[in-house]
Fold:
Amino acid sequence: MTGPASLADLARERLVWRAAGTRTVLTNGCFDLLHPGHVALLEAARREGDLLVVALNSDGSVRALKGQGRPVVPEQERAETLLALEAVDRVVLYEETTPIEVVRALLPDVLVKGADWAADEVVGRVEVEAAGGRLVRVALVPGRSTSAVVDRIRQP
Structure:
């Protein structure tokens, strides 16, 4: 797969995966300027199940969250890069500022976020846990963030 899947297609696939007992993991983010911190998060997420789906903020969603000038890398290129990683099985784009509709449509077995998010702040945690799934928070790699990379690039 070279591009993102539609949410409708993924929801249909999720039914098949669930019936087969495939443990589905979901994480989300902007994944602009992919760096080792992202890779560590994605690899940790993949170890939590059989299949990893990444909900990727669209360009408009990234702008709404991060401001003008972001994303640096367009959504299709970010999706292709994520899909090239061995840890990532599917990517789905979402336009909203949170992935709640993706979470509700897929109800993954495991929802993964970086440990910089408090458990009670993780969008979709309540829905996933109510469906019998669990939240996993992954420790971040210190000093590795897209904002830090962008700041270094912008410094004279």
About this structure: Residues 7-20 form the longest helix (14 residues). The chain has a mean pLDDT of 93. The radius of gyration is 15 Å. Residues 100 and 124 are 6 Å apart (CA to CA).
